Amino acid sequence: MSSAFTHVDEHRQPAMVDVGGKTVTHRTATAEARVRFPPAVAEALSESGFETSKGPVFQTAIIAGTMAAKRTHELIPFCHPLGLEKCRLEIEMNDRHEAVIRCTVGVHHKTGVEMEALTGASVAALTVYDMCKALSHEIVIAELRLVEKHGGKRDIAAP
User: Is 9 an annotated catalytic residue?
Assistant: First the structure.
């Protein structure tokens, strides 16, 4: 683990990283978030085909997560604006009453897309919560994490 903070200049002031001298490479990142439902809510959602009065839950969350990933630089102060080449969100229910949301982002650029993947997964999770909160406020958004990244200085894959 590196001990140097990358978003601080020589005067210890916040600064965007200068990527001007970096090489363009293909970079990808996958992030995951989990939305935990009480068992009765998970059952009701499954029986409804994951539809609520607000519309199709997972499809709406996929659209919201994609929109968020594309606008990450507007939300996170030192993220570079990127023209994403790929953004794919997948949502599946597991046997623990969790919606598992995976966001995979790709680009050819001088900087990585970890924050875009994390932003996409988190906004998709928030959208699921918003669309289901009428059923219960005991829904929990949990375990937002980077699953893997490729390109740049090093590849990372979660165990």
Answer: no
